[in-house]
Amino acid sequence: MFRRAFWFTAGAAAGVWATTKVNRKLKQLTPESLAAQAADKAIETGHRLKEFALDVRAGMLQREAELEEALGLDAPADPALPGPRRTALGPAAPDRRVPPHPYPTHPHNRNEDH
């Protein structure tokens, strides 16, 4: 008699546990829940991408500084060195060309309707 009561109670408890588990899983699979999960994953992925981009930028700036130091580009300009060269033509003359016509017409324009 006690064996039957034990197995009846064990079966009822297993049924309640299984029903609860199935109901939870069904609630997770509703469209609203799936949309919320997808949105959470998208936000999480965005944060990870932002962190990755910031790490890459920090590494890039560090490497740039190392290269500038190795090449001597970060040193102040030596006043004993000559300044930049001038071109043989001298300073550039102002541009005096006529501005283009706003609606150019070409006799062989393939885009015109004939």
From TrEMBL:
Renumbered residue ranges of the record's region Disordered: 70-114
Locations of Low complexity compositional bias? Answer: 72-84
> Organism's domain of life?
Bacteria
| Protein's UniProt name | Secreted protein
Q: Which organism is it from?
A: Streptomyces roseolilacinus
